[in-house]
Amino acid sequence: MNTAPKRTILVSGASIAGPALAYWLHRYGFAVTVVEKAAALRGGGYPIDIRGTAVEAVRRMGVLPRLRDAHVGVRRISFVDAEGRPIADLRPEALSGGEEGHDLEIPRGELAEILYGAIRDDVELLFNDSIATLHDHDGGVDVTFRGGARRTFDLVIGADGIHSHTRGLAFGPEEPYHRYLGHSFAGFTMPNHLGLAHEGRTWNVPGRTAVLYAPRGGDRVHAFLSFLRPDPPLDAFRDPAAQRDLVAGTFAGYAWEIPRMVAALRDSDDLFFDVVSQIHMPRWSTGRVALVGDAAYAPSFFSGQGSSLALVGAYVLAGELAAGPDHADAYERYERTLRSFVEMNQALATEGSASLSPRTPEDLARRNQALRDPSPVLNSTGRHAHSALALPGYDAA
Q1: Phi, psi of 304 (to 5 degrees)
Q2: What is the pLDDT of residues 257-292, one digit of tens each?
Q3: Burial of residue 377, with CB atoms counted within 10 A of its CB: 0-12 exposed, 13-18 middle, 19 or more buried
Q4: CA distances from 239 to 163, 234, 244, 274, 369 (A)
Q5: With a threshold of 0.85, does the pTM exceed it?
Q6: Among 121, 125, 203, 262, which residue's Cβ finds the most Cβ atoms within 10 Å?
């Protein structure tokens, strides 16, 4: 009988990458603890995509049937000009390069709930807490939690998003790894004045984009206001009033639904404000600490691949850790397997930016002409990038 103690792993973050990683690590026999700073599982949020290789990853998890039931099935994306006049209607797959009938679009909260359901009876979950300090040494990683507890783990994995606190503790400040893509955005919900259902509507002027998105029906829609800005508005990050003023001033005086959107922004209780950016790191691990998902290689929402990279990355990282006892070798194999796949999908953000947020009048005119083209797929490179990695097989998969 093998009585050797299980290797212990602390996963920081319980959104998408963290629970997916915890699922696979538990399946391979690790003792897993997940710590999450929020007091409970976070629901809500706009729909997110699972495409290409990531669909196979969730199939191997056994959750694909539930995800298909949650699929929202948006049927069209409409584009309008500065005055709200129609330009074109497209299938969502024509923009993303996705594959109709195969790829998925799931409300973020429902995806999180399904992933949480796959691990809640099998791993230790610590809500309303986070990592305060890390001390990495030959025998493990000593962790002090903000709640005061002190424990030692064999390994620590940061799955805590683009502004990862774990990355900050292990790798230092975010700035060397943060690549700003020139846009800032605000997301919120608002009344569905246009009666949209299973569709999105996109408005553009050069350097500014407004989107109303109704993945289902109902009396509320997701609203997004994105704008070109040479430098990130760092002074607004900790001040919601400054965020509202910045966005409202940027969109003042425009037509279509913009006045209603700005008014809703002012009154919103679910405003999310950030910059459009990516994370680029020369290495995704140091010592016994590694990163997965947006913490290591955020591709930005212009790519549409953040959740897919998180799910695939979690699968590969867990499989490589299970393949042998040497964590350093496992981390290297994880990077070798994923690096080119990540880079291909991060590169989609440039094409996504050109399609969704043209910067100049000339860019906008070219984009609008492309929308009117009857070609079935506007983003022809996306489909290849989404499926460019053949998912490896591991013993327990």
Answers
A1: 70, 15
A2: 999 999 999 999 999 999 999 999 999 999 999 999
A3: middle
A4: 17, 10, 9, 12, 39
A5: yes
A6: 203
